[in-house]
Amino acid sequence: MANSLSVVKAAYAAFGRGDVPAILDLIAEKVDWKLLGPPAIPYAGQRNNKEEVARFFAEVAQADDMQSFEPREFIEAGEQVTVLGFERFVSRPEGKLVETEWIHVFTVHDGKITRWRGCYDTARRFV
Fold it and tell me: In this protein, which residues make up the domain named SnoaL-like (predicted)?
């Protein structure tokens, strides 16, 4: 069975390829998936299953033209993996360039992602 860190790294590799089905294969049927942020961010909020997570990725692609997405540091603690990173995107429809650091926290159980929290400086999107 894959360890937590290898599952998380595989998910980022799939995201980098634009391979959402591969990401979904790494997610448990029931998942606690949440991007913390205001309702003005179309993909913020809670998701509870693979179909909702698939919609999350579709909403991200629709709302943001990703220029750079860089997981930079991985901190593993058993089933938990915290990832520190950076992204640059152009928000739609405003056309505003946003650069921000982010934090993602994963829980991986039996080789599947069961929980994810995402945080970034959402104020950068609106200032």
Answer: 8-116
- Cα–Cα dist 102/100, whole Å: 6
Q: Which two tokens stand for residue 120?
A: 């970034």
- Domains of the chain, by residue range, sit at 4-126
Determine how many CB atoms are found less than 10 A away from the CB of residue 66: 13
The three-state (H, E, C) secondary structure of the chain, written as one string: CCCHHHHHHHHHHHHHHCCHHHHHHCEEEEEEEEECCCCCCCCCEEEEEHHHHHHHHHHHHHHEEEEEEEEEEEEEECCEEEEEEEEEEEECCCCEEEEEEEEEEEEEECCEEEEEEEEECCHHHHC
pLDDT tens digits along 20-40: 999 999 999 999 999 999 888
**Distant-in-sequence, close-in-space partners of 80: CB < 8 Å, separation ≥ 6:** 4, 105, 106, 107, 108
Q: Does the predicted model carry a pTM greater than 0.85? A: yes
